[in-house]
User: What shape does this take?
Amino acid sequence: MKTEQLTVSDPRLLAEFIGPDAMKTFFEKRFEVPPDHIGLLMRNGQFVQSYKGAHFSVGGMFHQLKGLIGGSTSVSLMIADLKTFQHIYDVTARTKDKVDITGIVVLDLQINPEKPQNIIGLMEQRRSLSKADAATR
Assistant: This one.
């Protein structure tokens, strides 16, 4: 069975939700999260677990039968990029003698791999989070 690799769809994105349509299947479907990304599993709107560089499978006939007998749960997955990214800020400072000094500050930013669920707070009811939006916050 072929394994599908999950990454963010655009290099400018930091994190995005994988739609439930991509995970719906009658037969089993296998996914892989590369080591430089992290997958956050959400069940019924609650954070369950994060997986860095993991392989997992969804669907299958047993899952379909279980859904018919006991009901179904809403499962979604968010993929986040763990690589560092740079953001450039223009800074202006004024000295004591009223002279403006301009400069550039370059920050290297990254999602905290020990608490990746904190990125959910940055999403603001959106399906994706860009690197520029995270840097401006």
